[in-house]
Specification:
alpha/beta, TIM Barrel, nine-stranded parallel sheet, 38% helix
Length: 385
């Protein structure tokens, strides 16, 4: 029996209120052990003793972006060395290489509607025969399926029609909520120059994916100047969406790391104890959810997060860098497997869509997965190893 009545209620499968969550957080500041152990008990209850990852290739389709986030190093400006404007041929070549490496996921990432701001983006689209970035993504996704990889597109605030088209060739999609706070969009705050990060805009995209029944990955960013209450409200907003539509397949809890070429380069990294508390709270708020942290952003301690409620490492590539966090290389899959085993968990490879969401995807896509699928709905070990 725990001292906290609210934590006991969670273990009894009762939904707890915002006030109870705030109280749990306040209590954890002096001693987080009850919160951490409850999160771990819930994780074992609903996710057992395995931890998953997706073996992926990262396709940096276009990194021009109409927005400017204070912490982002992904965005390029015309003329910069890091600019990426992938041609159809380059996409085909990387798909071929990814297949040789036995990657399962083709992660397609773009800046936010770059053609609305940059002539270079409009010229790039025209050269490749497309009118919009979304149209190009639909083509790239179809190429991936033909190559035997499974697309997961993360391209910002797509409209409902584009989402509907991409749904035909993507087994899942992603958009980070990051935070629901309007305060973070004010002058001097990280999302001031990023209209697409307005909470209302992000929530509208997530609402549309719910209506379309698209398995979605979303998440929060920890350490960008938010308050604990703003984080709690952001997790609760995700819970509310999932209760309404049932299509949120996983929640990423990502820690902020400062980047040298950004406005927030002198901002401190997210405090690790605070970060672990937020991870555990996410498990408390959504006990059955798939919860992920990126292991490359906590390179020396990622395995310790297995004791506070996570059950997934996200996409890891043996082939391509993390273009969003280029200074943080992904650990080798063998190292992650060993570290997971040392912590008492078996590493398993999943598709970009979790087994509990297979019913959301079309029959044709579903059938293509079966060649490399095991009896659990995960990727056959002999394929990914």
């Amino acid at each position: 029996m725990l001292n906290s009545e609210s934590l006991n209620n969670v273990l009894e499968n009762k939904i707890i209120s915002r006030d109870e969550i705030i109280q749990i957080y306040e209590n954890s500041k002096s001693n987080p052990n009850e919160l951490f152990s409850t999160a771990q008990n819930l994780r074992k209850k609903f996710k057992e003793n395995s931890v998953t990852f997706s073996k992926k290739a990262f396709f940096n389709i276009v990194n021009l972006c109409k927005d400017t986030c204070s912490y982002c190093t992904y965005k390029a400006e015309p003329g910069e060395e890091k600019i990426s404007l992938m041609s159809k041929q380059e996409i085909k070549q990387l798909l071929s290489l990814a297949k040789k490496y036995r990657c399962v996921e083709a992660l397609f990432v773009t800046g936010e509607q770059p053609e609305q701001r940059y002539q270079e983006a409009r010229d790039w689209l025209k050269t490749n025969g497309f009118k919009s970035t979304a149209e190009y993504l639909i083509h790239a996704s179809e190429l991936a399926i033909e190559s035997g990889l499974f697309p997961h597109t993360n391209a910002g605030n797509l409209n409902k029609e584009d989402l509907k088209e991409l749904q035909k060739s993507n087994v899942s999609m992603g958009i980070m909520l990051e935070n629901i706070s309007e305060r973070l969009t004010k002058k001097g705050m990280p999302h001031y120059l990023a209209a697409s990060k307005r909470p209302k805009a992000r929530l509208e995209v997530l609402e549309n994916t719910g209506k379309l029944r698209i398995p979605m990955t979303t998440g929060i960013l920890v350490g960008i100047g938010e308050t604990p209450m703003e984080i709690i409200d952001s997790i609760l907003a995700i819970r509310k969406l999932h209760e309404k539509y049932g299509n949120i397949q996983e929640v990423i809890v990502q820690n902020f790391q400062p980047k040298q070429d950004t406005m927030m380069k002198n901002f401190p990294s997210a405090n690790e104890n605070y970060f672990k508390t937020i991870v555990a709270l996410t498990r408390i708020i959504m006990p059955k959810m798939n919860i992920q942290i990126p292991p490359n952003l906590s390179p020396n301690s990622y395995h310790s997060f297995l004791s506070v409620g996570i059950n997934d490492w996200g996409g890891i590539s043996p082939l391509t860098p993390d273009y969003v966090n280029p200074e943080f290389s992904w650990p080798e899959i063998k190292k992650i497997e060993q570290d997971s085993r040392n912590a008492g968990f078996e590493l398993k490879c999943r598709f970009p869509v979790y087994p509990e969401f297979f019913s959301f995807i079309g029959k044709e896509l579903r059938n293509k997965m079966k060649d490399i699928e095991d009896e659990e709905g995960l990727v056959k070990q002999e394929y990914w190893k």
